[in-house]
Design goal:
Layout (H helix, E strand, L loop, with lengths): L2 E8 L16 H10 L9 E2 L8 E10 L6 H12 L4 E9 L11 E10 L12 E3 L5 H9 L3 E4 L14 E14 L2 E10 L6 H14 L4 H10 L14 E7 L9
Parallel strand pairs: 3-10, 5-6
Antiparallel strand pairs: 1-3, 1-4, 2-3, 5-9, 5-10, 7-8, 8-9
Helix pairs in contact: 1-2, 3-4, 3-5
InterPro entries: PsdUridine_synth_cat_dom_sf, PsdUridine_synth_TruA, PsdUridine_synth_TruA_a/b_dom, PsdUridine_synth_TruA_C, TruA/RsuA/RluB/E/F_N
EC number: 5.4.99.12
Family: Belongs to the tRNA pseudouridine synthase TruA family.
Length: about 260
């Protein structure tokens, strides 16, 4: 059976997360339902990562084995037709080898967390960012983020429900950028690693917001990391600011590079 990789974007608000669950809508179920309109015998699809309820994606990757050969463009068009009206879209399709796996072949994952500093309620970005109504010091946040770089035991920033075998991960990039966003200031937190723990990035974002507000210092981030204790973490940021933006592979299946 030919195997295909799919790059998928979605608005996470209507869904309980990526993973299929009983009696609640999921992104996985939406994509599988669309694919079964083309291939009724389809098995479950596999994704590069499981995003939580309310979390968005612009670069999720999944794979599926189909009963017939498709040209990537026609398959993308057909799946998108059957995904309507769900806020999910396939933005690229590629034929891959039978041993290629969306999760296990991945060597990098990139996430973005958006914070909008603004007093007035969000209109166009409602549900797409974390609104913070008080000023934030982005330079202090950037210094706090630098304390997280490298290989560490990230128990402090790990959900108690995390199923990863080890809390040790290597954080390759932790970047804080600001940009004007109309009457707001947008603070964008970007994180790159091979893999992440459950709630790790939302825990980072909540902790860095404390630094930006002045309630914590960058040194407090170092102390929290060294504590290896979930109780030492700052608050967990809400899901609507988080986006899975990219999954990297030794060779990108969508570009061949």
């Amino acid at each position: 059976m030919p195997r295909y990789a799919f790059r998928i974007e979605y608005h996470g608000h209507p869904f309980s997360g990526w993973q299929r669950q009983t009696h609640v809508p999921s992104v996985q179920e939406a994509v599988e339902t669309a694919l079964r309109r083309l291939d009724p015998g389809l098995d479950a699809i596999a994704a590069a990562g499981r995003t939580d309820a309310g979390v968005h994606a612009t670069g999720q990757v999944a794979h599926a084995d189909l009963a017939r050969d498709w040209t990537p463009f026609r398959l993308m068009e057909a799946v998108n037709y059957h995904l309507k009206p769900d806020p999910v879209a396939v933005t690229a399709v590629a034929a891959v080898t039978a041993d290629w796996h969306a999760r296990f072949s991945a060597i990098e994952r990139r996430y973005l967390y958006r914070i909008l500093v603004r007093r007035a309620p969000l209109v166009h970005d409602a549900g797409l960012a974390w609104q913070v109504r008080h000023p934030l010091d982005a330079e202090a946040m950037a210094e706090g983020a630098r304390r997280l770089l490298g290989q560490h035991d990230f128990t402090t920033f790990r959900s108690t429900m995390c199923q990863a075998k080890s809390p040790v991960k290597t954080l390759d990039l932790a970047q804080v950028e600001t940009r004007a966003a109309g009457p707001a200031t947008e603070i964008r937190l970007t994180f790159h690693a091979r893999s992440f723990l459950h709630n790790q990035i939302r825990s980072f974002a909540g902790t860095l917001e404390r630094v930006g507000s002045g309630a914590w210092s960058p040194d407090d981030v170092s102390h929290a990391l060294a504590a290896r204790d979930r109780a030492a973490c700052g608050p967990v940021a809400p899901p609507q600011g988080l986006y899975l933006t990219h999954v990297g592979y030794p060779e990108d299946p969508f570009t061949g590079s």
